[in-house]
Structure formats: C-alpha cells, structure tokens
Amino acid sequence: MIIERLTEEHRNIEKLLVIFERELDVFDRGERPDYEVFRAIIGYFEVYTEVYHHPQEELVFAKLRERDPGAAAKIGNLADEHRKGVEGLRRVAHAIKNVLADREILRKNVDAIIRDFIMCE
C-alpha cells in the first residue's frame, strides 16, 4: 500500500538526516567530514524525494483533500513544504560546493544552512 511505502520512506529519510547531522558535527569540530556522505545524501534528496517520493505524497494529499478537506487543512500546504525543502536543499548543496572549492564561507553559516534543512525535513 502506498501509505506504508511512504511511511517507510520517511523512516529512511530520518535515518539519512541523522547521518547528515553526525557528519555536520564532525565539520563543526573543525575536522573533515565524509563529503561523499554529504554528496550522497544531497543526491538522494535531489533525485529520489523530488522525483518519486514527493509526487506520490502530493497525489495522496490531493485524494485526502477531496475526501476530507478538514483533515487536509490540518496537515497544511504540502506543496509549500516541499518547495521550501527544495530551496533548503539547494542552499545545502551550494554551501558544500563552496566548502569543497575552498571558497570563503564561515563554518557557522554552513552549519546554519544544513541544520535549517534538517529541521525542515
């Protein structure tokens, strides 16, 4: 069933965010995190969540809105949340790209960008 699959995907997303946060903690200590992990997680969110997961969620949400507008209203604006997530992910990808290119970017700014994304997801 689609709801079960979406629920499982959310559990997987949570696991990735925990790993992302662990690597960010390494970065915050001034050590070198595993940037391949950062890239892999960013890639997952760019491809899987945006191409597969979010469209399925939005279909389910549209059905809910048709059947029970009150319940849908309690959830809020799913499309807006997804849009904010995409914007946050772009900022994360850009920050990591800048770090890897040795461009001037404060660690606290990278931390804020990534933590912002983690909290929104």
Features:
mainly alpha; 5 helices; 121 residues; 0% strand; elongated
Description:
By secondary structure, this protein is mainly α. It contains five helices and no strands. Helix 1 packs antiparallel against helix 5. The longest helix has 33 residues. The protein starts with a helix and ends with a helix.
Order of helices and strands: HHHHH
**Unreliably modeled segments:** none
Shape: elongated
Q: For the terminal residues, how far apart are their CA atoms?
A: 23 Å
- The average pLDDT is 93
Number of strands: 0
Give a brief description.
The chain has helices at residues 2-28, 35-67, 69-75, 78-100, 107-120. It has 121 residues and is an all-alpha fold.
Task: Please outline the helices and strands.
Elements lengths: L1 H27 L6 H33 L1 H7 L2 H23 L6 H14 L1
